[in-house]
User: Fold this.
Amino acid sequence: NAGVMQNPRHLVRRRGQEARLRCSPVKGHSHVYWYRQLPEEGLKFMVYLQKENIIDESGMPKERFSAEFPKEGPSILRIQQVVRGDSAAYFCASSPVGHYDGAGNTIYFGEGSWLTVV
Amino acid sequence: GQQVMQIPQYQHVQEGEDFTTYCNSSTTLSNIQWYKQRPGGHPVFLIQLVKSGEVKKQKRLTFQFGEAKKNSSLHITATQTTDVGTYFCAGRKSGGGADGLTFGKGTHLIIQP
Assistant:
């Protein structure tokens, strides 16, 4: 754990409810990424944010999912009207600079939030 | 879109045997990263390869990046029980652009003592 804090660690929601997952990046990191992992699967990129801006949301479902990274406070991944298929581990990661500098940068993952929809 | 394939999906070895996982991308990569995830845990960064043909070593782990920058491998010599986990490769396609890392599905390493 390189300092990315996620909460809650485990969340149970009934179908149709809303899920809010929070992520505080490593101190000093202004770039945040959200990934989803299904059981026995790899991680799928969802969204990349900088403070107050969504840089890339190409992996985010068009409906029910939204993400923000406000000037103050943690990044939030919000899932409205959850369905059983949303059950997964959601990982947040952060980096000090963006992904896209050619040489690449290490990103540090949080411990994940496990969402179960019943 | 970019795809990253990893094989094998599962690998059972006896403690002390070697282990190799292979990663292939459908597109040329600018760099590739490897992560390890323990059961119930989160991905932990192991290494990044950037140059064509690059080879890096970390104790018993050897990482290679192919000449064409489309494939990579991770080899563990003389596995130990602490090596148990899932090893993911993650690539970023060449040419930049606003894409996040594309992860392979991982290779689950199971070690029998």
Notes: Chain A touches chain B through 28 residues (CB under 8 Å). The first strand of chain A starts at residue 5 and ends at 7. Residues 89 and 114 of chain A are 4 Å apart (CA to CA). Chain A has no helices and eleven strands.
